[in-house]
Amino acid sequence: MELRHLRYFLTVAETLHFGQAAAQLGIAQPPLSRQIHDLESEIGTPLFYRNPRGVALTDAGTVFAQRAMQILAATNEAVTEARDAGAGRGGRLVIGFVHSLAYSLLPQILPGFRQHHPSIAVSLREITVNEKESALLSGHIDIGIFRPPPRHPEIASVEVNDEGFVLALPPHHRLARKRRVPVAALAGENLILFPALRGDVGLSGTIAAFLRQHNVPVKKGEEVGTIHAALGLVLAGVGVTIVPESSTMVNIAGLVFRPFVEPTTRVTSCVCWRAQDKSRLVHAFRQYVRQNCSKPNPQDSRSAADWA
Asked: pLDDT tens digits, residue range 10-34?
């Protein structure tokens, strides 16, 4: 049984006349009659009652017509989706993001992309810092929205923005009275820090470098895996923590944020993908970011031709 058999059958079922159906299909009536006869032989039961004035569906024909319409509709939908995906107009794109960018960079990128590409379905996955490279390389996600950029040679990226750091502390803390906090004032404070990741500078390495630059010894306190967890420990009175500026977008009662007197090290956020991924969906996302969201004169980790 082939799809053309279903199309022929449904045309006859609609017109209830072999001659009219043949004219609509652009074929002669005898070949159409043979195709319907072959279909009935394969199914093992008549689909039409024949009479001199035309035809009528049997009970089996009525049931078969319902299923045949569903099959053809699904087939047409699959063809349309495949063509759209091939042209970058449809399909599903899986985007992974680290949680701290869910209220800063993700809202900056996603609404506009959806508006420009409404036929592309987007699935979102929260990715931990530890798994951001493996999630991309394994194909678990197609696009990563991460901070800082991964360093794996098989991952390409483009910088979208960068930001400095601020100090998060309770409002009753002695340093909360200052409009700006000198880095030296952190000496002796219990600092809530982030884990160092192998092969990735991350927040831990960036913050440590900032403190070393100003000769501030680190009195290490608790170590947590996320910015939200660090802010929670500050609320609990465990210590203070250094977080990216975008963390101030989260309005949490019992927390205050203070900038530093000294310029801070910048931490970069990026959009990244598998360097060898030729998917048009990935290409469409990259193009949108490059044209609408990337930093001026972005330094792509791959050649400019990779954007084409």
From this structure: 999 999 989 899 999 999 999 999 9
Is the separation of the CB atoms in 293 and 108 below 8 Å?
Answer: yes
Kindly report whether the global pTM for this prediction surpasses the value 0.90: no
pLDDT, tens only, 98-135: 888 888 889 999 999 999 988 888 999 998 878 889 99
Domain boundaries defined on the chain: 3-86, 91-160+268-307, 165-265
Domains 3-86 and 165-265 share a fold: no
Instruction: Classify domain 91-160+268-307 at the CATH superfamily level.
Output: Periplasmic binding protein-like II (3.40.190.10)
- The pLDDT of residue 88 is 56
The fold of 3-86 is: Arc Repressor Mutant, subunit A (1.10.10)
pLDDT for position 54: 80
pLDDT band (50, 70, 90) for residue 52: confident
Band of pLDDT at residue 142, cut at 50, 70 and 90: very high
